[in-house]
Design a protein that fits this description.
Largest sheet: 6 strands, antiparallel
CATH topology of the domain at 1-114 and 440-448 and 472-506: Rossmann fold
Helix content: 55-70%
Distance between the termini: 22 Å
Radius of gyration: 42 Å
Strand content: 15-25%
Strand order of the largest sheet: 2-1-4-5-6-7
Number of helices: 16
Number of strands: 15
CATH superfamily of the domain at 1-114 and 440-448 and 472-506: P-loop containing nucleotide triphosphate hydrolases
Structural class: alpha/beta
Amino acid sequence: MITTLHIKNIGIIDDLSIELGEGFNVLTGETGAGKTLIIDAINVISGGRFSKEMIRKGENYSFIEMNLYLPENPIAIENNIIVSREIHTNGRNSCKINGRLVTLTELKEFMNNIIDIHGQNDNQKILNSKYHIKYLDNFIGDRIADIKEKYRALYKKHIEIKKELKANLGDDKEKQRKLDLLQYQFDEIDSANLKENEEEELEEQRKIFMNSEKIGKALNQADMSLGEGAIDKINEAIKAVEKISDLDKKYEDTLCQLKGVYYEVQELSRDISSLNSDMYFDENERNEIEERLDLIFSLKRKYGNSVKEILDYKENVENEIERINNLETYNEELKAELQKLEKEMQELASKMHEIRVNVANELNIKINKELADLEMPNARFITNINETDFNKNGIDEIEFFILTNIGEDSKPLAKIASGGEMSRIMLAIKTVLANTDSTPVLIFDEIDTGISGNAAKSVGEKLKIIGQSHQVLCITHQPSIAAKGDVNFYINKESQDGRTFTKVRKLSEEEIINEVARIANGEVTEIARKHALELRKTA
C-alpha cells in the first residue's frame, strides 16, 4: 500500500504530503482544487507520460515521492520501498527506487505490478489481452496451477530443443566451413603441445637468462670472498678459543659454536662454487625460450588468457568437432525427444483447455451479475478462448470481450469508448477477481461519471469490498460512494500573494458526515446531515 505521497510543483500543487490509509480511501472536494492532479502525479511516478506544462508556473522542476509498504510481495526485496521521480524543465529526468537510480522503463515495470490506475488506459493491465490468461488462471487457482507448472517445465525443454535443432540444421557449406575452422584451431593448439604452468617456468628461465651477467658476477664475488678469507679467519678464531676452552664451560660452548659455523660456511662455500662453475648460458636455449613464450602469447590472444584456458578451449573445440561429425544422428535423437515432449505437452495443454472453458463460463456469470448491480443489465462479459500453437500457457489464447448494448457486437475491452461504461466494467471485473489480483493498489479516477442513484450505491459497495483486500483510492462526486470510505480526504484550493495552492485535509468522522451532506445537497443542512448519517451507517 501507499503510506505517504509527497508532491511538489505539479500544476497548482506547491508542496503537498498525504498519509494514506488502508482499505478504501476517498478523495472529495472543490472542482478544480487539484484532485485529478494528485492522480496525475501518481501516474507520473508510475512511469507515465509527463508534460513540461505540468510543472508549476515559476518553478523549474517537479518532484514526486511515494513511500510503499509491501508485506510478502514477491516483486519487492524489502517491505518498505521509497520511489521518487524528479523532472526538470530542461528535460532532465531522475527516477529512483530506494535511492538507486533506475531507468524510466525499469520504474514503469516495477510500478506496473503495484498500482493499477483506472482512468489512465496506458496503465491498466486488465485492458491488455496478454494478461487475460493470467487473470483467468488466477481465478481458477489450484485446479490448474500444478498442471501449468508441469507443462511449463516441458515447454522450456521444448524451446531449448527447437533452438538447438535450428542451429544444427544449417546448409552443408556452412557446416563444412565451421568444421574446417574448428579443425584448424584444434590442430594449432594441439601442435603447440602446451602444458599447464609451462609459461611460468619459461618466464623464470627467461628471467635468469636476462640477468646472467649480474648472476655470474655476484656468485664469483661470493665464491672468492668465502674461499679467500672467511674460512681461514673462522679457523684462526677456533684455534684461539681452543687454548682457553678447558678453563670454563662457556668457552667450550663458544668453541662448539665456532666449529659449527666453520662447517656451515665450508658447505656454503662448496655450494656457491658449484653454482658458479655450473653457470652456463646457451644463446640457442635462450632463443628457444623466447620463441616458446611468443607462441604461447600468440595462442593466448586467440584462445584464452592462460595456458589452462587455451587447453579448455581445445577440449571444447574437440567436442564440437565430434558433435558436428555426428550431427545427423544427434538431430534424429533430438527430433525423437521433441516428438515425445509434444505428446506430453498436448495432454497437459488439453487438460488446461478443458478446465479453462468450464471455469470461464463461471467467471462470465459472476462478472455479468456484478454488471447488472451496476445498472448495466444488458451488458455481457465474454471470455473468448481460442486454440493456437504451443505457448508458455498451453494451447490457449484468451481475450476478454464485452457486449454493452443489445443488438451490438461484442468488442475487446480495450475498445470500449464510454468512460462511464469502462469504469463500471473494470469495477465489476475487479470485484470478482479481487482475491486473485496481486496488484496491491487500485486507483479509480472519476469512476462515478455518468451514474447516480442505485448504480452509485452499488459502485460504493463494490469499492468497499475491494478495499478489504487492496488499498483503493477513489475520486468521487457521489455521496453514496464517499460515505463508504474507510479514510476520507478533502481537497480544496487557497490563494495567497497572487498564487493558488492545493490543500488536503484528512477528515474526522464528523467532518465526513458534513462532506457527504455537502456533496448530496450543495450545502450542509440538517436534512442533508440526516441523510448523510444514514448513508454512513449503511457503510
